[in-house]
Fold each of these.
Amino acid sequence: MNFREVIRIALRTLGRNKLRTVLTMLGIIIGVTAVICIVGLGNSASSEVTGQIQSLGDNMLFIQAGSVNTGGFQQGIGGTKTLVASDADALATEIPEVALVSPESDTNAQVVNGNQNWATRIQGVGPDYFNIRNWPVVEGSAFTKRDVDSAADICVIGSSVATRLFGDDDPIGKTIRVKNVPVTIVGQLKTKGQSTFGQDQDDVVMMPYTTVMKKLSGINWLQTITASVDSKEDEAAATDRITSLLRQRHHLRTDEDDDFSIRSPDEIAQTVGQISLILTILLGSVASISLLVGGIGIMNIMLVSVTERTREIGLRMAVGATEGDVQKQFLSEAMVLSSIGGVIGVALGVIASILVCDYMAWPTVVSPLSVVVAVAFSAGVGIFFGYYPARKASRLDPIEALRYE
């Protein structure tokens, strides 16, 4: 028999017990659906996180205050007080790859407008920050270098703060109190929405970093310096030059660790991508167990089928069917079961991925490779678990099979 004839007979045989066939395929369908959905969601989540990180700005580098060891206790990132505004000036003038620099000093505070108040993040930045982050001011204007030099009592607010304090009123030109310091609103930022990590990016008040340091925090050091380099190709060279310059400025000996750290969004994206890949593989592996359970179901039903069709097998052998023909027939039935279940599972998995991604507002990313692998794996499960029943059927003695009741 040719391949087409074998498949036709297999479909006809399976069609005799439709309910049993559907129930047998169910394990394969559920397994493939779970694998496709989990892998798709993992890829979508990774893509969303990567997009959010890249939206922070182009070719950025974050220079953060480093950790410090006090009495045997490591205080972690931000523990040192050696990163200062003059370091930011040095980066802008002495590192050729650096295009823009913004010193940063952050704090949290209650902001008040009349009888309305709101606890929010106060971010002290330089005038280049808005260009580094690609975050335009849509109403009013940003502050200037002169405002930074004079530690002006002005701010630019996010849309969430504007809504909380002013409702539908125009906030530009209004005065709010930040830690009892009266501050005039000169601009409002474009709405960015929530980050992948659930943080409301628009819940922020941005002020000149000098104002935050002198009038709100009472410090003379920086938590972060944000820099933008000319191109991604320059990031590695810029990182090396910045490291060398800051070590020199901070008078660090060769045997001393850096008292600062340098990170880029690409590094963060790679780390998140690796974590997402590991989780996807683990969850996909768990989901694939249901494929094995489905394969056991196929083996079980094929063994039952061999028992039920013993006389039929004996009759076929009596009229000339070889052991290979019988084995091929039962293997084809097992493979058809698993393959049809795999195709249905792929369709359901893609639909489930699209629905969940739409609900989460993530981009839908279903890898064609995962679809091919899932279908191939399901067909392989059918062949693997169908081999023993097929071999058992082919080894039946025709005389004993014809006598079987």
Note: The chain has a mean pLDDT of 82.
Amino acid sequence: MTQTTPTCLWNDSASLEELTYSIDHGAVGATCNPVIAVTVIKTELDRWKPRIAQLMREMPTATEEQIGWRVIEEMSAGAANLLRPVFEAHKGRNGRLSIQTDPRFYRDPHAIVEQALHFSQLAPNMIVKIPVTKAGISAIEEATYRGVSINATVSFTLPQSIAVAEAVERGLRRREAEGKDISTMGPVCTIMVGRLDDWLKVAMEKGKLSTDPGYMEWAGVAVFKKTYAIFRERGYRLRLLSAAFRNHMHWSEFIGGDVVISPPCSWQKRYNASDIEVISRIDTPVDPKIVSDLLKRFPDFRRAYMEDGLAEDDFDLYPPTVRTLRQFIAACAELSGLVRDIMLPNPDLK
């Protein structure tokens, strides 16, 4: 795929071991989020536990939360360093490491922008994840205007993606009007295709609905393909990124597009070992019968698939948004707990 099509591979983790494998197999970028960061720290605790202890000494008044975020920053900067040669070769379009703003800021555009600016200074090739909430849209415009390459996340729908694209365009135009450089910026908009599928499966059970179970695997694919066609038609200056992998179609159906695909390393190994043919499928439409059935049965698919299906004021309470924010916020608490166990070991467990 990376050799024969314009489709780019980014690794969905900041783990140095996983990223090294991915780069060796054609990856030109990487993404991360609070859940992934916690997983990396737990998996590589032999490495991070001594560093946390050292940070405790270096930052004697820091809270467990502050130390936890410092670890995320160092993890991200280390992964970014691995990608620097790609970044320089691609002149900013690729070779970036995604670091996510604190999901607890999802209602506060000022806090999001300030953290985005800070994160963008950690390495020249950072790209900063901002959630596609109502506050996130204004933060995306402002961060773009201030020179930050953004990766819009917590995004599942066509309306969210259009709002992101328009916000990025406003930010870019503001920079251009002031003669500021945009040539090395590389914004992307994520669609978490698998998380949309996940929610519709929950909705099917809640509503006691019946449909062909295979149809449920196509919802995120259908939204992504429709969004990609609109992006090309309108000439938006950012790429789509496919995330939240649940089956091989979240990779194979997007091959051939000028898009980013960001599977976890485990999925990359599965793809590399498979006999799935690497051919362009991005312009192959999803069966209209499947789309029609999903539109008829699932109001939340209509909201995701139709351009006017979801207003900005409704972004925050769209069910996949709520579920994902809650998971990311819980991961922040888990990160603090990991640090707490090192700062204040539980005497009852000794």
Note: The mean pLDDT is 95.
